[in-house]
Amino acid sequence: xxARKTDRIATVGxxxxxxxxLGILAFIVIEIFIRGFMTxxxxxxxxxxxxxxxxxxxxxxxxxSTLYLTFLTMLIALPxxxxxxxYMSEFAHEGRFTRFIRFCLDSLGTVPSIVFALFGMTxxxxxxxxxxxxxxxxxxxALLNLPVLLRSAEEAxxxxxxxxxxxxMSLGASRWTTVKKVVLPTAWPGIITGTILPLGRIMGESxxxxxxxxxxxRSIPISPFDPAAPLAGYIWYVQSEAxxxxxxxxxxxxxxxxxxxxxxxxxxxxxxxxxxSKRKSLGG
Amino acid sequence: MEGxxxxxxxxxxxxxxxxxxxxALDDISxxxxxxxxxxxxxxxxxGKSTLVRCLNRMNDLIDxxxxxxxxxxxxxxxxGTGYDVISLRRRVGMVFQRPNPFxxxxxxxxxxxxxxxxxxxxxxxxxxxxxxxxxxxxxDEVKKILDRSGQSLSGGQQQRLCIARVIAVQPEVILFDxxxxxxxxxxxxKIEDLMAELKKNFTMVIVTHNMQQAARVSxxxxxxxxxxxxQPGRIVEFGDTNTMFTNPSDSRTENYITGRFx
Lengths: 284, 262
Prior knowledge:
The structure holds 2 protein chains of 2 kinds. Chain A is built from 12 helices and no strands. Chain A is mainly alpha-helical. Chain A has a single domain (about 40-280), classed as MetI-like fold, CATH 1.10.3720. In chain A, helix 5 runs parallel beside helix 10, helix 6 crosses helix 10 and helix 11 packs antiparallel against helix 12 (about 245-280). The longest helix of chain A is centred in the N-terminal third of the chain and has 38 residues, at about 5-40. Chain A starts with a helix and ends in a 6-residue tail after the last helix. By secondary structure, chain B is an alpha/beta fold. Chain B has a domain at about 10-100 and about 175-255: 3-Layer(aba) Sandwich (Rossmann fold). Chain B is built from 10 helices and 10 strands. Chain B has helices at about 50-55, 85-90, 105-115, 120-135, 140, 155-165, 185-200, 210-215, 240-245, 250-255; strands at about 10-20, 20-35, 35-40, 65-75, 75, 90-95, 175, 205, 220-225, 235-240. The interface between A and B is medium-sized, with 25 and 31 residues.
């Protein structure tokens, strides 16, 4: 067989594999939308209050819960992970200690979410005697996502060329000023892109939600100490309890709404990242 | 404008430099005359860049680097414990081998140094930026595009932008670490002309691979060499550039500048 023929076969082969992967994804998305899209775009569903026993309940408070929990988690996890990433990449001397931290992070990153959920429940509900609430979930979720966020932020910082740091320090900037004025602004688009995966994970996480935040509320949560019911947990609850007669349609509609939210957050994050990298003069 | 009477802006006395256990420089002694250009020449790996990076203590950034000896700036030892490295780097600026403008606008690149000391009035900053770009012979080419990214310029323009960025800090010494090795001959010419012009106000040190360049631009030349692999860099000969290139006293210098090795 000559090289050109091999090349053609390989091209077709990889193309086919790509199409299969894409096809499966498309199938899932289309399936979910066929079953739930009409329910999802109905205002009395996505903005309405849920029903405990009757049919016709909405998921308004659940959408708010999902976004609130995601926001709160990021509010806790982002500063911590960016701060730690700056330490690891800009200040720490490469050695045993940093290798140990990385090892711990990688180990932590493989711990199943149910273990974090149990930890959060034990700490907040049993030990601190809180009731289920957004903050308990957000802290637990922040712990769960810290390894990935930290590693991706560290990666983004390391991609900033060393020559920028040298230039800045040779002009008489301290390490911290260099980080603030040159390294962070340059790494920002990468750091934002790195939040896409954790954002999806937070919005889709059910174990932590079920154990620490709650699965059913009738009113919209206001305070971080209010119980809430993010979508993923609510979908699990409605499906497994099956009390309301229209539970099938709620589950399908909820799944479609969750998917739409995920798409929106994903595109929003990408746009933000592009916006930052396109801006010609960063910072000042 | 120089504060000391002996005519030397910077002096290096018996300097040894180590990367971990490896000795990179051995017993270097050199004086840099005020408002003159001193060239450091020698084959790759002879420690020229390492030496020049000792002068503004950029080597401090490398884990495990260590120096012994003395380097003075206006007769004050800059290697002393407690010496303010930040003020040293503001007095001894550096232009690197590869042009390295920040991913910021041309204006913000030049304004970076002045802004580090605190809030500067807009008019004053505008003046510093314009003046620095003029002195770096770049103003006419960029005056209409100051808000464009510094990285959108050509390589030679970027290097002159980096020179403007250093000038804006108003240093007393400027170190050039092979400033022309990554740019074209016409831009190289421009930078050499620029250096001749800057000599009025600055003491300059240039590391170069290019012996013609050293002969063209410098007043004094130091020839450095590593005798054998694994040994530290040493100075073979140091003196007036003309004498060095026409009548070197060491046969190794002669062999190098006539192109027999290196």
